[in-house]
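Q: I have 299 residues here and want to know how they pack in 3D. Can you give me a structure?
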Amino acid sequence: MTRTPKHSPYFKTRHISVAHSPDADDLFMYYAIHFGWVDSTQTCFSSCAKDIQTLNEATLRGEYDISAISFALYPLVCDDYALLRTGVSFGNGYGPKLIKKRTTTLKKDFKVALSGAHTTNALLFKLAYPHARIVYKNFLDIESSVLSGEVHAGVLIHESILEYDENLIVEAELWDIWCDLNKRDLPLPLGGMALRRSLPLTIALECESTLTKAVEIAVRNKPLLSRMLLERNLIRVDSAKLETYLNLYANADSITLSDVQIEALDVLFRLGFDAGLYPQLIEANQYMLPCEYLTQRYS
C-alpha cells in the first residue's frame, strides 16, 4: 500500500483508494502521484496493484473509489462508476496477440486461455471465435499453458506481447479482428479508469484533475520516471522493453480521451450490446464527469 503525503494538518483531505494493475503502463501513469510530483489539497490517495481481471471483479463489487478497468467491463458498472477521461490505453496498429505452438493446427472448437471474462481481449475474441472453449488464467500463466499443451492457444496481453517463446507463433492479431469488426480506422480501446459515483462531485472532479496531471507529467518526464521505476524493481521488463511498451500504451494519447477514442469506445460498446453481452447500449460521453460544473457553479 502506498500513500501520498498530506499537505498540512490544517487541510482536511478526503482519502481516495486507487487500484491499478502492476503493469508498466499503469505504474507509469500513477506513480507521479506516489513520488509527490502531483498533489491535491482536497484528496489523499492510497493505491494497490492487482491484475486487471481482479480489478474488473472488484469494480463489479464496488470495492475501490477509483480503479483501472478493462473498457469492455464499463457498460456493466456504468450506473455506479463514472468513466474517467485520463489514464487510458489504446492500441493503434497493435494490441493483444492470439498465439499457438508452431506445430498446432487450430480446430473450430480449440481450447484457449484468456486473461479474464471481462477484458476487452475476451470480448473481441468471443466475437471472432464463438465456438472456442475458453479457460481463464492470470495473464502471466498463459504462455506456459500453451507451451505445456494444457490449451491449444492463448491471448497474450500487456508486456507479454513484446517477447515470447520461440516455439510460439501469432495466429491472429486482435488489432486485425478489431478492424474487421468496426470497419473503421479507429484505435483499439483496451483499458481506462472508473470513479465511484457516490463521491461528491467536487471531489470526483479534483480526482480526475489530479490523475490527469499525473499522466501528463509522467509523459513529459518519461526518461526520469522510467529510471526511477526500474531502480525500485517495480517493472517486470528491462529498460529497452519498458520504453517500447510505454510508447505503445502510455503516451500523449493516454492523457485525456480524444473524440476519435470516444468514438472507438462507442463502437466497442455497440459490438458488445449487439452480441448480447450488455443489458443496455450506452455512449461514453454520457457517463463522464461534467467538467463544466466548477465554472458554472461560481459563474
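Q: Anything worth noting?
A: Residues 264 and 276 are 19 Å apart (CA to CA). The domain at 97-182 is CATH 3.40.190.10 (D-Maltodextrin-Binding Protein; domain 2).
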